[in-house]
Amino acid sequence: MKKKIILSLVALLLFFSVGAGLGVLYITSTTSELKRLIELYQVEELRRSLIIDIQSVQSNLLSVNTPFAQELDSIVFNVLSLEESANKCSSCHHPQVLADRIINMQSMMNDYEAALSYYLTTGANAVRVEQLKKNAFTLGNKLVEVTEHMSHSATTSLAEKTDTAMTNINYVKTILFTTVVVTLLLSILVAIRLIQSVTRPINALVNATRMITSGEYGTAISYKDKTEFGELANHFNAMSTGIKDAYENIQREITERRQTEEALRQSEERFRTFFEMSPTGIIIYPIESAPMDKNLEFATFNPAFHNFFGYTREEMFHMSIAELSHPEDMGKNLDLYKELLEGKSNSYRMEKRYIKKNGEIIWGYINSTVLTNFQGEPSHIMTILVDITERKKIEEEHLKIQKLESVGILAGGIAHDFNNIL
User: Fold this and answer.
1) Angle at Cα 191 formed by Cα 189 and Cα 192, nearest 5°?
2) Distance between the two ends of the chain, CA-based, in angstroms?
3) What CA–CA distance (Å, rounded) separates 7 from 14?
4) Alpha-helix runs per DSSP H in 214-281
5) Domain limits of the chain?
6) b/e per residue, 73-85, with b = 16+ CB within 10 A?
7) DSSP string over 43-63
8) What is the rounded CA–CA span in Å between residue 53 and residue 144?
9) Order of strands, edge to edge, in the sheet holding 300-301?
10) Would you call 400 exposed, middle or buried from its count of C-beta atoms within 10 A (0-12, 13-18, 19+)?
11) Which residues, including other chains, have CB under 8 Å from residue 212's CB and lie 6 or more apart?
12) Residue 125, class by beta-carbon neighbours within 10 Å (0-12 exposed, 13-18 middle, 19+ buried)?
């Protein structure tokens, strides 16, 4: 977009510079031509003044020796004026052809002045004076004709040059007006184009962001060009696609997590039901509170566990495994428990005696296992306690019976042997 703006401004500036350059060129040329025209008009004024001076001298010449004759000083003054006008005209810069004509006119002027001088200063007879007067008048007429011809030619040339200068001025006006109008139109077109180039992608971007905000993830912009907006559109489309993929992944994860949480909740409910209703005693406690001489305040156990010992749940929180165990069985239990805590084993089993609240000694079969967290690290210990007191009693009774049977057999054998001896 930056490149497009720069190129547009450069094009406008270039067009305006070309138009302004042409205008300046024509203005410079026309100004020079007008300056030349002013000089030519000044020269033309000198020629007209020269003609007037010649005609004044001719009039004075004709009025000599008449009642209308002027003073000699006045005639001399007109001749001097004539000479001054001729000198001014010849001092200007002219083309070669015109300069030759002016030189010729200057020569005729000198002849005319000489003729006047002869006429005014002669003392000859009347015929000779009249002849000199006629010669001077004839030279004056020729000089007037030459000067008028030059003036007419100059007037024609001045008219042509003036028309050319006015045409050039009109060209300058046209060029400047065209330059201003076209530059203005181009500026408007460029401004409209640039505004469209800026607002169109921005509107597309705003609409796309609104759609994404409303939940239509993955909305893409169809705008494509080689400017920064095109690059922005590509990155926006990539971002929108990424948002859509991330949203879908999050939705899948949420769904999976909800399913997992639901399954976990159901599993917890089943475990809780099993835990609470199980006839087997179960206790779970954190590893950090695992030492057997600590109270069970951080442990979780089911009713079968505290009923096994004859304590209430609240009373059990203030008891320890060591207080509940028979002292003679604690040594082996501690050794197995230590191996479990040190990671040398994952579980252990043993039969041991416990002391109930009423002091009765009971037997239990325990199975202790290490539980891990989601990171696979040991976190809790679960112990399952089975009441085997009745089994132990039966075993003891059976053992007594076996002993009695052994004693009976031994006594019978002795009696038999004794009878044989007798």
Assistant:
1) 65
2) 135
3) 10
4) 228-277
5) 1-190, 217-257, 279-392
6) eebeebbebbbeb
7) HHHHHHHHHHHHHHHHHHHHT
8) 10
9) 300-301, 281-286, 378-387, 361-372, 347-355
10) exposed
11) 219, 240, 243
12) exposed
As a whole number of Å, the CA-based R_g of the chain is 69
**Statement: 1-190 belongs to CATH 1.20.120.1730:** yes
Quote the pLDDT of residue 71.
Answer: 47
Tokens of residue 37, six digits: 């025209």
Query: Which tens digit of pLDDT belongs to each residue from 171-183?
Result: 777 877 888 888 8
Cβ distance 167 to 33 under 8 Å? Answer: no
Q: Tokens in use for 103?
A: 């030189």
Per CATH, domain 279-392 is 3.40.50.720: no
Query: What are the beta bridge partners of residue 22?
Result: none
Residue with tokens 């075993």: 395
pLDDT in tens, 183-210: 888 888 877 877 777 777 778 778 888 8
Cα gap 73→62, rounded to integer Å: 16
> What is the CB-side half-sphere exposure of residue 271 using CA atoms within 13 A?
10
Contact assessment for residue 10 and residue 135, using Cβ atoms and an 8 Å cutoff: no
The answer to whether 119 and 61 are in contact (CB under 8 A) is yes
| Distance (Å, whole) CA 30 – CA 119 | 50
